[in-house]
Design a protein that fits this description.
The chain has 6 helices and no strands. By secondary structure, the chain is mainly α. The termini are far apart.
């Protein structure tokens, strides 16, 4: 007996969605690790502002990692649980050795670009298989992430104007 026996999501659809969520989980885990490094290594005039914001971000990412893994389990899948596995399937690459706010923020924005695109694709897949729960979960993520991206872009633009 599986959860899909009761949810109305066909096994093939659940497997496809769980597989894509597994890739998203890997992206979130690598992004989380990168964000921890950014939090630890940020330097410069914006240290206090960004150090705190990066902590907020890695807390956000950790929460989403747990939710994605649980959704994979609900769909009958098994979430990856080690970084060697994540590195094989993540579209986000490990980043280390940077402490410049512009480089860091560009990396964060690029990671969000990757995650947002993947979430949109999974939402489409979930809708094809009548998986409203996954679509809703990821739609909620998009709302939060698009606001974060907007704020980060505004912050970067303000920094550029101050430099000129």
């Amino acid at each position: 007996m599986t959860v899909t026996n009761f949810t109305g999501i066909r096994r093939e659809g659940a497997e496809a969605i769980a597989s894509e969520l597994g890739k998203l989980l890997a992206d979130f885990q690598i992004f989380y690790a990168n964000m921890r490094g950014f939090h630890w290594n940020i330097k410069g005039k914006s240290f206090f502002t960004l150090h705190s914001k990066f902590e907020d971000q890695y807390d956000y990412l950790a929460e989403k990692v747990d939710e994605i893994a649980e959704r994979i389990l609900m769909l009958g899948g098994t979430p990856e649980n080690n970084f060697s596995g994540y590195l094989k399937i993540s579209s986000i690459k490990e980043v280390s050795g940077i402490s410049c706010k512009t480089e860091i923020l560009n990396s964060v924005l690029d990671s969000y670009r990757i995650i947002i695109a993947k979430e949109r694709a999974i939402i489409s897949l979930a809708n094809e298989h009548s998986d409203e729960a996954t679509a809703s979960l990821l739609s909620d993520y998009l709302k939060e992430q698009e606001k974060t991206v907007w704020m980060l872009v505004a912050f970067l633009e303000a920094q550029c104007k101050e430099s000129n």
